[in-house]
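Inputs:
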Amino acid sequence: MGFEKFLFYVFATITLVAAGMVITRRNPVHAVLYLVLAFISSAALWILLEAEFLGIVLVLVYVGAVMVLFLFVVMMLDVDIATLRAGFIRYLPIGALIAVVLALEIFLIVGPANFGLQQFPAPAPAAPGVSNTEELGLLLYTLYVYPFEIAAVILLVAIVAAIRLTLRRRSDTKYMDPAQQVRVKKGPDRIRIVKMPSERAAVPAVAASAAPQESTE
Amino acid sequence: MIELWNALPVVIQILIKIIAIVLPLLGMVAYYTLAERKVIGYIQVRIGPNRVGWRGSLQPIADAVKLMMKEIVIPTKADKVLFLLAPMIAIAPALAAWAVFPFDEGLVLADINAGLLYLLALTSLGVYGIIIAGWASNSKYALLGAMRSAAQIVAYEIAMGFALVGVLVAAGSLNLGAIVAAQEGNLLTWFWLPLLPLFGVYLISGIAETNRAPFDVAEGESEIVAGFHVEYSGMAFAVFFLAEYANMILISALSALLFMGGWLSPFPQAWIEGIAILGDGFHWLLLKTFFFMFVFLWLRATFPRYRYDQIMRLGWKVFIPITIVWILVVALAVLAELPPWWSA
């Protein structure tokens, strides 16, 4: 138990420090990388809670895919710190208000009244043969199948909406269609063999005017 | 001997096991670079390196010494910490992934339930090394390479993940040992046959994930010099190189494990009664891995580089639909208990 507790405090400290860094770093790339660190150490915390499926999926989905796209966008930002700080005082009151409300809400839900071992006794550790993945799957596809499917549909709607909002075809630009390009065959598409009669060095006037036309067709 | 081993603390035991996995792996990486130059050399009717040692057999060691002696140049306006961290981030997942890899029946460092997921998660982390290197170098070409790599890896990871979903539907387990056990039988009961489209998608996505030719647009030396590692020199560059080759070996070994029966023998039990060498064992896994490692080199020597937009089309518009359809087919086949793979 002692070692487990030690690990918990190590990962919890890393998570908190990294999360603090996310909102205090000036450089957005550094902030995103600290967020990645926070994700990885919270995944470790979940694994300590015997939720290894959730922990690994957190790394796989958030760190492996979502944050890569985040970095991808943030890397291309040209950050000007002066303009970022320009409205600081102006927005401070509303920002502080929102922060206070948020903190209050969080406190009401996970405050000492609803939290801790007195209210919820620690669950017994799972037997060694129990697979977290299987248990989760059984629950997701039986008891929670409707919420699960509805969540999936909501995500699909979000994808469709995002694509619809950003997709526009400009008529004045020329596109290449790679799907058509890879279908090109050697025979009729790439080369065309033009038959033309052999010519003499000194050609008659009629043939000379006809021949170039045929070869450039 | 066994008593002595059991007397050691668990941490020391694990450490010895890790060394026993990583050292041969790094040796293999070193000689894989030589094998690459030799194989591609012979494919292109050259001899390849032949000066250092007998027929060039000491070439990797000469290369390593050379790279270690070289200076690590840090560009003036580079982000120093991230610049030096990037190669380490690149190689760490490539080595850590081997923790759950079973080399033979029960011969595995960490026999965890969610082994396949762990592997998928770790291979998806490798891209950070590339992206961070590209950004921290503060160089146009490096940034371009990093962006290409990010887009490519996100695209192919989905196809790869779906291909692995097919494997886990077929095997009914995320544990790598159990996946191999589910392929028990002979050459024809391995998963490559019922999962043939997924096998193809997995192999090609694996090549794309490791940024190897013909998908090496992240390096694309004819367009962006050397891509993400253009500013790296000496050992920092060598570590990227090591990571790439360790990843290639990992993908090859995983293809052998997930689709080609791992350590299982291709012959039916009845044929090889009493011939121990033809029975199941680590040597079969090694042989299959070597075959896929050769395929990597073979492809590099054969195909020209894909164009970026065609890579994206292949990943999103071809592979992902194929995998989704075939997962459905596999699921139906499992439900129908299609022999010989899923007969009860």
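The two ends of chain A are 84 Å apart (CA to CA). Flag for discussion at group meeting.
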